[in-house]
Amino acid sequence: MKRVMFVGRTGCGKTTLYQAIHNKDIKYKKTQAMNFFSDTIDTPGEYVENVRYYRALNNTSSDCDVIALVHDCTSKVSIFPPGFSSMFSKPVIGIITKIDLCNDEQALKAAENFLVSAGARYIFKVSSMKSEGINALKKWLDIN
After folding, report:
1. pTM of the model
2. Please, what's the b/e burial string for 119-140 (b: 16 or more CB within 10 A of its CB; e: otherwise)?
3. I want to staple 120 with a disulfide (CB 3.0 to 4.6 A). Which of 22, 33, 115, 128 is the partner?
4. Torsion angles phi and psi, residue 6, rounded to 5
């Protein structure tokens, strides 16, 4: 089982993704501080939205096996600068969330390009609300 750290802007679906992966009831809960679980670290969006918190992300990454850059496909801009993943010494994947809300193939392609530019090596497209793509992500992370 790989321990994953979710990183992404506020409201992109990190906590909802955690709930979907672990078959929990989906409830909105603003993450105020880093939440540490046995196989997941859920980070507040502010940690990637404010450069001063990058060091905290980098330090916390030592407690996981893989970094997941999470991007909401309905967002037209990326929070991740090109090469963002280079600050981590762990593999980095990209997760495009809320695909059930995106009927535009170009928006999905743009989201994928944002994550690849940031340094994600594998891209997963998921809908936590409809469980689309969740099993493929769980299989890759080896989460039962």
Report:
1. 0.95
2. bbeebbbbbbeeeebbeebbee
3. 115
4. -85, 125
Specify the DSSP element, H or E, that contains 5.
strand 4-7
HSE, side-chain direction, 13 A CA sphere, residue 4 = 25
- Strand duo 92-97 + 66-72: pairing: parallel
Q: At what angle do helices 134-141 and 14-21 cross, to 10 degrees?
A: 80
Cα first-last separation, the chain: 8
DSSP 8-state secondary structure symbol assigned to residue 127: B
Are the C-beta atoms of 64 and 41 separated by less than 8 Å?
yes
Q: Which helix (H) or strand (E) holds 20?
A: helix 14-21
How many residues appear in the chain?
A: 144
pLDDT score for 29: 75
Give the integer Cα–Cα distance in Å for 1 and 138. Answer: 10
pLDDT at 144: 67
